[in-house]
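User: For my dataset I need records formatted as: sequence, then structure tokens, nothing else. Please produce one.
Assistant:
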Amino acid sequence: MSKIKRNLILACALLLSVITVTGATETYLHLANKSGRRYFQMFSEPYIMSARKFDPDGAGYRRGSADLYSFDYSNPVQRISERYDKVFPRRTDDKNILKVIVLGASVADGVGASSSDRAWFTILENNLTAKLKRKVVLERLTMPGYVSTQERVALDLIGFDRCPDHVMIFDGFADLSTFLYNARPGDPYDQVVSYELARSSAFRIGFWLSQKSEIFNTLWRFHFNRKIAQLKSEFLMTPLQQNQYVESVNSVYFNNVDAMLTQCRWHKVGCSVFLQPARALLTKEENGDELLAKTYNEARRRVTAAAENGKPIFDLTHVFDSVNEKIFLDRAHFNDLGQILVAQAMEPILEKYLRSNFTKTQCLTAHANK
């Protein structure tokens, strides 16, 4: 066999091996990421929608040419809130049912529960219905990744239009942990690091490749995560920087909370705010938890001060303190036992508010008479 022929066979064998390994890797990554696939995406509505739970069809968009979405005008809407009925389904407009609008991020959305039947909101809904001898519905405007700025917008654009008997806000972690994603205080997690090359041809090619190749997507995410980690280390190294971070995120969070409480008073709707638990207050196993614990402790101090001034803000960070069993699945989300404990802690507070509001608000009466 000639040397040229032998080299050609070796080259073909090498090429075939590369194709086989690449195909096998793509298949593995595709299957591994099937339930939580993360592509770099651009969204036209970041404050109400979220990169973690974006449904263009549900939001009223129709896919057109060049993979672009535009609003589907064949489905007319009368009020802006109707644009989100598929994203946040309406559960009832029955005047005999007590409706509670729920705002929050992934924890409020029930992430961590083994099923929706075991999520805190289902447990609380059933318990309140039994206690009050009247049907109670928790209608969620919750979305993984939400921060209080988005909740504030969702409450104003969607929540009040649904005529709730009460508004409950169950959040805290997303706002207080923005350093994990390098986001500005109060900004949606979708709006994080701005890259200098974002508008360059190289970036657009990389963006396209990340959608077509699991391998490239994985490598690119690894590169970006490493860059974000580098930025964190640069901007949160000194005690002064950390103190300013703690002050900033807490100030923005409680400013948004105060704004939502003011909105509720203006609409004559009861409102309660619950600061969610966090694993950082129980352990310091992972890097970053010490700063998160410091941030949370400042939030707890502010919750105590607000409660002493008569504001309906409640600290749930202590509900797991006496539990020996495993509760947390990660930094924020908790298992079925945690779902039960949180629902039990909320129950007497919500029961008190709903008992004082057994008659429907003016809002529903006004809509019913239209």
